[in-house]
Amino acid sequence: MNDYDVPxxxxxxxxxxxxxxxxxxxxxxxRDGRGYPDDASRQALARGLGFGRTVFVDDPERGAVxxxxxxxxxxxxxxxxxxxxxxxxxxxxxxxxxxxxxxQDGEFTWIEARPEWGPPRRLERYASAAEVEALxxxxxxxxxxxVWAWEDExxxxxxxxxxxxxxxxxxxxxxxxxxxxxxxxxLSAELGRALNIRQGRGSQILAAPAPDGTTEVGGxxxxxxxx
Length: 227
Known about the structure:
By secondary structure, the protein is of the alpha+beta class. The relative contact order is 0.19. A hairpin with a 4-residue loop joins strand 3 (about 55-60) and strand 4 (about 65-70). It has 4 helices and 14 strands.
């Protein structure tokens, strides 16, 4: 998973790694966004890199960032902002959605978000973690789906998997997202409690709602390739 061929000036991170440092979502970070000054050049790079998300840093002091998928610009996304906050060591980020605060707490980096900032998705509870594990692909249907089950309800431990179910996604929509920060925010807010989520093959995402309607989401970040 560490064998990335990227142009100079781009860092590659893995965000929401498991306790053993494995897994997590890959993220490309362009430290100097001026090298890609327009929409077309940014979209072409994001498409060429092929990561689920690429972040362009437009102002490292102010924390102004631009988040791209291979096909579009996003107002907000969880793992890119957690990764950027860790890499740039910032307490405030400014994606298109507005100001996002961040903090470091030991091995975890946290950001504050609102559930409505993420894309709409269906949350579907399964009866057991084993049923979530047993899925060999996305269940039938359209639109983003986040399936989850309690591993230990009293402790707030969740087993989850995320299926974008996009026609333009990997395998014609059959792909799976390894670690989905915005979905963790949504689930934590809906349940009204702190969660410790194991997603995908072994990524770990922490989330906790706050009284003001925000939800913190956090995880480990590792640097895979430095620019």
